[in-house]
Amino acid sequence: MQEQNMKFMQIAMKYLPEGKQMLDEKGIEFNMEDLQPMLELLLNVMNEAYELGKQEAAQTDE
């Protein structure tokens, strides 16, 4: 699970500049202290989506 979370974190960091730009354009301040809880939320979403995809793949194989 730790390795999977690291991969998810790399994906999140890839899109972080785009997300920051969107927030900046809306006038929403975003700093590194705000980043940690948002990344944890994103990891939870990505893990749940991963598990759902895994379950669907298992059903397809049956």
Please estimate the helix content.
over 70%
What percentage of the residues does DSSP assign to strands (E)? under 5%
Name the quaternary structure: single chain
Let me know the number of strands: 0
- Biggest β-sheet description: none
In whole angstroms, how far apart are the ends? 25 Å
Structural class: mainly alpha
Nearest-integer average pLDDT: 90
Low-confidence stretches: none
**Radius of gyration from CA coordinates:** 15 Å
Taken in chain order, the helices and strands follow as: HH
What does this structure look like?
InterPro entries: ComZ. This is Possible repressor of comG operon. Pfam families: ComZ (PF10815). By secondary structure, the protein is mainly α. The protein has one domain. It is built from two helices and no strands. The protein is elongated, with a radius of gyration of 15 Å. 0% of the residues are buried. The mean pLDDT is 90.
